[in-house]
From TrEMBL, chains A, B, C, D:
Essential cofactor(s): pyridoxal 5'-phosphate
Protein name: Amino acid lyase
Pfam families: Beta_elim_lyase
UniProt keyword terms in alphabetical order: Lyase, Pyridoxal phosphate
Signal peptide: none
Record lineage: Bacteria, Bacillati, Actinomycetota, Actinomycetes, Bifidobacteriales
One GO process term, biological-process aspect: amino acid metabolic process
InterPro entries the UniProt entry points to: ArAA_b-elim_lyase/Thr_aldolase, PyrdxlP-dep_Trfase, PyrdxlP-dep_Trfase_major, PyrdxlP-dep_Trfase_small
One example GO MF annotation: lyase activity
Organism: Bifidobacterium anseris
Keyword rRNA processing belongs to the record: no
Keyword Protein transport recorded: no
Superkingdom classification of source: Bacteria
Coiled coil: none
Similarity remark: Belongs to the threonine aldolase family.
Amino acid sequence: MLSFQNDYSSTAAPQILTRMQQIEHEQHPGYGTDDYCKIAADKIVKLCDDPEAQVWFLVGGTQTNQTVISAITPQYAGVVCADSGHINTHEAGAIEATGHKVLPLPNEDGKITAAQLDDYCERFYADANHEHMVFPGAVYISQPTEYGTVYTLEELEALSQVAHDRKLPLFIDGARLGYALTSDGNDANLDDIARVADVFTIGGTKVGAMFGEAVVFTRGNTPRNFTTLVKQHGALLAKGWLLGLQFDTLFTDDLYFKLSEHANKEADKIRQALTDKGYDVAFVSQTNQIFITVSDKKAAELAKHVTLGFMEAVGTDRVMLRICTSWATTDEQTAELISYL
Amino acid sequence: MLSFQNDYSSTAAPQILTRMQQIEHEQHPGYGTDDYCKIAADKIVKLCDDPEAQVWFLVGGTQTNQTVISAITPQYAGVVCADSGHINTHEAGAIEATGHKVLPLPNEDGKITAAQLDDYCERFYADANHEHMVFPGAVYISQPTEYGTVYTLEELEALSQVAHDRKLPLFIDGARLGYALTSDGNDANLDDIARVADVFTIGGTKVGAMFGEAVVFTRGNTPRNFTTLVKQHGALLAKGWLLGLQFDTLFTDDLYFKLSEHANKEADKIRQALTDKGYDVAFVSQTNQIFITVSDKKAAELAKHVTLGFMEAVGTDRVMLRICTSWATTDEQTAELISYL
Amino acid sequence: MLSFQNDYSSTAAPQILTRMQQIEHEQHPGYGTDDYCKIAADKIVKLCDDPEAQVWFLVGGTQTNQTVISAITPQYAGVVCADSGHINTHEAGAIEATGHKVLPLPNEDGKITAAQLDDYCERFYADANHEHMVFPGAVYISQPTEYGTVYTLEELEALSQVAHDRKLPLFIDGARLGYALTSDGNDANLDDIARVADVFTIGGTKVGAMFGEAVVFTRGNTPRNFTTLVKQHGALLAKGWLLGLQFDTLFTDDLYFKLSEHANKEADKIRQALTDKGYDVAFVSQTNQIFITVSDKKAAELAKHVTLGFMEAVGTDRVMLRICTSWATTDEQTAELISYL
Amino acid sequence: MLSFQNDYSSTAAPQILTRMQQIEHEQHPGYGTDDYCKIAADKIVKLCDDPEAQVWFLVGGTQTNQTVISAITPQYAGVVCADSGHINTHEAGAIEATGHKVLPLPNEDGKITAAQLDDYCERFYADANHEHMVFPGAVYISQPTEYGTVYTLEELEALSQVAHDRKLPLFIDGARLGYALTSDGNDANLDDIARVADVFTIGGTKVGAMFGEAVVFTRGNTPRNFTTLVKQHGALLAKGWLLGLQFDTLFTDDLYFKLSEHANKEADKIRQALTDKGYDVAFVSQTNQIFITVSDKKAAELAKHVTLGFMEAVGTDRVMLRICTSWATTDEQTAELISYL
C-alpha cells in the first residue's frame, strides 16, 4: 500500500547501495579510523567553513542525542528544550538514563525563542532556592523542528547569543537537517548552523543513508576523549567505514541537498493540493512533513488507500495526521496521494 | 529576628535531646540493627495496623525519595507526580540522577487526582508510539502537599485504586505527615495511609527530630535487599540507633501527633488573623504552611520584623510569601507575628 | 598490506550485499517490526529448539552487552565475569555507566568455572558484611572466549547449574558464536547454548554481516518492555529490516555456519604451520583467533609483511600477537601469511 | 558485653552532646548556611594553612565518597584505588551507581604506591586500545588505610606528584583521619594532607561525632555548584548546623586530636599485650585498628567475653579478627580485654 508514514522506510539512495557493493573486497581499520571517515569529515568541515570543527559518525539519533548531551551537560545541570522536542517525548528517557533532567519550555510550532530561554535562565538564577534545583546546562533544539518548521537565521543567532551569554552550549539536532537547508525561504545554511551551534548533527538515516548521524563539534568544542564516550554509550560502530562511505557519498555532487530538496518539492505539491481542497493544515511547514487535522471519517477513508502517521486525537471526532515525504518519494506516489485527498 | 521561614530551623524536641543525652554511655551495633530501631519500627507497624509492614530509617528527604523511587520504578519507566512535587522542583535532579524521568501532571492546589492519573495512563497506552516513550512506573504524591493542602481519604483511595489498576506502586511522601494527620478535617489516619500506599514516609526532620525519615513499605512490599540499596545511595547511617531513638521518642506518648497539632493550632491563629485583616491567602490549607500574596511594599515592611519564606513574584508588584509554623513555634512568636500583619 | 588483524575489517558476505541491493525499492515499517526481522527470528528460534525464545536485533556488541546486562541485573547487584571478559576490559565502562559493578573472577584461558562461581557466591553470602557489598546478580561469559577458547558443553552445563542454583541469569556473549559452534571438538550446539543460557547473542558483525547482534532470550525470559530498554540505550535501529535481512541471509542455507567454519579452517592451517615451525602459541584455541608470543625482533619482521593484532608486551623483549582469520580470509592470504612465519 | 568491634558504636563525645543540649532554643538557617558551619570551616581552613581551601559538611562516609568522586572524575574515567579500598569493597557499588568504574590496584598493607600508580598509567596510555578502556580519572586512598596503616609523608608526596603529573586529582578519604594524625611515627600533619591532596575528608563519625564528614577541597579545587551536587546525592542535611556545631566542637581545644590520640594509646596497650603473648598480628599498624590471626578455637573462646570484628577465614582453622579501639574506649575496658587475651 502507498505510504507517506515517515522518511525512514526506504533502505538508501541508489548511489549509496552501489558504493556499498563496490567495497566488497576492501579491508579497513575499524571504529572510524578509516579513510572514508576522514574524507567525509573533511568535506563536512569544508562546508561548515570552520577549520576547527571535528566530525564523528554515529549510527542512530537517540544514541547520538544521548552521547552528545551527556558529554556537554554538567552533572548539576539539565538540558533545556521545547516540550515537543524529541528528547523529551520519544527517546524512552535516554537522556534521564544518563542522569540529566530534560527541562522543557512550551513550544510554539515546535520552536523555542531566545526570549523564552533568557527568561527561563533569569528566573532560575533569581530563585533563592536555585541551588536546590536543576541548573540549565545546555540547550537543545532541532532544525527542522518536530513539526517540520524551520528556524530563521535570525532566530538561531538570537538563541545562540542568549545561550552563550548564559554559558550554555547550543546543540542543534539535525536528524532532518537537509530538509531544512533546502526548504523554501530557509536562510540558515550549513556554515550558519556551524557558526551558531556548539555542536550539531547532520542526519543521514532520514536523508538517503541506511543509517548514520554525523556529529559536528564546532570551534574546537569536542569534549575530551569523545571516542571513549561514544564507545561507553555503545555508539561506536565496529565497521565505521560504512558510515564514512555513506557520508562521503551524500556529500559528493551535493547528493544530500538534492535528495532533501526533492522531498520538499514533493511535499510542496501536496501542500498546494491541501490548500486547494481546503484542508486544515496544522503548522506552516516548508519541509517534508505536513500535519493535517481531519475528521475521524476522513481519516478512515484515507487509511484505505495510504498509510499516514497518526499523531493524536483532536477533540472527540477529529485527528491530526502526518504526511511525510522523503528523498525516495516518487512523482507517481505523490500524484496518487493527491488523488485520495 | 522572628522567623516563620520554615519548619526545620530548630534542633529537636526537648524529649529527643534529653534521650540523646541519656544514651551517652551506651554501645550499639551499627546500621540500624540496634534495639531502638526495632522498638521504633514495632510502634510504627502497630500504628499502621499492617503486620507485614517493614520500616527503615533514613536521614533526609531527598535521599529517601531517591532511594525509594529508584527501588520501586522499573528501568523503562518514570515516576508520575504533581508538577509542584518536591522531586520535580527542589531536589536538584536527584531522581533523574538515578536514571528515571519525572513525569509531571498539572497540580491543583498541590494535588493530582485519580482521574488525571487514569487519563494520563489511558493516553499513554493508547499512543501508538508508547514503546518509545517513558512508561509511567510509579506514582508520587505528598501528604500534605507542597502547598500545605491535605488529600481527603476519598481522594487517596481513588488515587490508590487507579494506581493499582494500572499496576503502579503509590508512594506517599510524608515529610510533613504529622501536620496532615492532625489537621482539622483530615480524615486519613496513619492506618489509612498504610492501606492506600505501597510505601510512604513519616518525616522526622520537620516534626521534632534532629533528622530522620521513616520509610514504611506496606503489605510485604519491601524491595529485595533494600538495605543494600540504602547503602548504595549513601543513605545508611552508621549510628542508626540515633534514628531509632528519635522515632521511638516521637511515637511515645503520641509526641509526634502532639508536636504536629501544636504547629497547626499556631497556624490556625495566623490564618484567622489573615482572614480578619483581609489578606489574599493562596491555598485553603489546614496545616502548618500558609501562603499569602502581598504587595512588594507590604512584603518589605514585614521583612523588617520577621523572616518569611519567599515563594515567587506574582505579576509586577506582588509576591507570594510562605508563613510556616512548626512544633517549636511559641504562642508568643505567633502573637508577635500577628501584630505585624 | 596483508592483514590478519581482526575479523571485522571486511564489509559483509556477498550474499548479504546482494540482498541489500535487491531491496532498494521496498518500503518497510521501522524499528524491527518488519517481516525480515520476523523471518530471521523464526529461523533462530527454530534452531534453538525453544518455542518460548524471543529474538531481538541490535547493532553492536557493546550496546548489546550494556542493554542486556542492565536489564537482567538487579540494582543492588553486579555482573560476574572473567577478568579477561570484554565487558571488564574493552567497553569503556559501558556496564558501570548503567550503575552496575563488574565483578571479575580470575580467568584460565579466558574461562571461568562453575566451581569458581559457586565459591564466589558461597564466600559472598558467608561474609557478615555482604549487605554492604555488591551482590552477584548475573553471570557473563563469552563463547568463544576473548582468547578464542571454547567452553565444553559439560563446562557450560555446570556453570548454568550453579548460576541457576544461585538464582543468577547466565548471559553468553556470542559475538563470535559461529566460530565456536563450528570449531573442531566443539560439543555445544545452538540448542545447547539456548538450553544453558537465559540470554545469549549471535554475533553478526564478526561473522559475515555489516553489523548486527541477535539477542536471544530463552524460555520466556525476555525482560518486560525490552523494546523500550533497547530504545533507551540508543540501540534501536530505525531501519530495523537491515538487521532482519542480514540475519535471514545468515541463517539461509547455513551461511552463518559455513562462513564460520571457513575461518576456522584457515586458522587451522596457520596453527599447523606455527606448530611445525615451533612457535610459542599462547592458548589452545580451535577457533579463528591464534595468540603467539614472539621476540620483539620477530614481531618487527612480521610487521613488514602483515598486520597482526598487538596484545601486550611479555617480559622485556617479547610480545604477544594475535592472528585472526575471518569468513573473508582467502586461501591465498593464509598461504602468504604462512610464508612469512 | 565488652565490645571492641568498631569505632562507631558510641553516640558522641560528651562535649558534643552538651553543646547539642545548649542550642535547644536557637533557630538557624538550613543546609549549612548557618554560623556554626562557617566557624567550623574557618577553623579547618586555618589548620590546613590553605586560604583557598573550602569546607563542606556531609553526613556519612559512603555518601561523601560517592558525591566527591563523581564530582571529580570525568565521565570517560574511573577512580584508581587499592583493591582493599572501602569504595571497592564495602560501599554496595555506590561509585559504580554514579557511572564510574573503580580501578583497583593490588594493595600492600592497605596501601598503593606512587610507582604502582605511575606504572598503571604508563601501561594504560601505552595500550593501543586504551580509548576503548576506562581512563584513570582520579586517585582514591585512605589515611589511615582499611588496615589501620599510615602513609608516610614521603609516600603521600610521591603519590601526589605522580597523580598530578598524570593530571589526576588525589582524594584522601580520612574517615579515621584523626587516628592517623596522632599515631606514633606519623609525619604527615593536617597541613601536609591539605598540600598533597586535591580533596580530602576529616571523618567525624568514627572520631567523636554523632555523624559527619568534613570535605576539604584544597587550593580552590571545589567543583562548580558543589552544593547542588551534594543535594543531588541526597547528602545535604537540612539542619546543617548540627554538622557545623560538631566540627566546631571537635576543633575546639584540639578535641579531635585528643580523642584520636586516646584511642591510639589504648590500642598501643593492646598491641603491647599481643606482642608479649606472642599473637600473630597481621599488619604493622599504629592506629586504633589491630588485626590478629588466631585459631578458630581461640576465637570462640574470646567471643565468650568480647565482641571483636570478624574479618575473614584464614586457611581451614584460623580466622582474622579486628580489635578496634575508639575515642570512647576506657582504660578499664582495655584492661579487661587484655585479661582475656
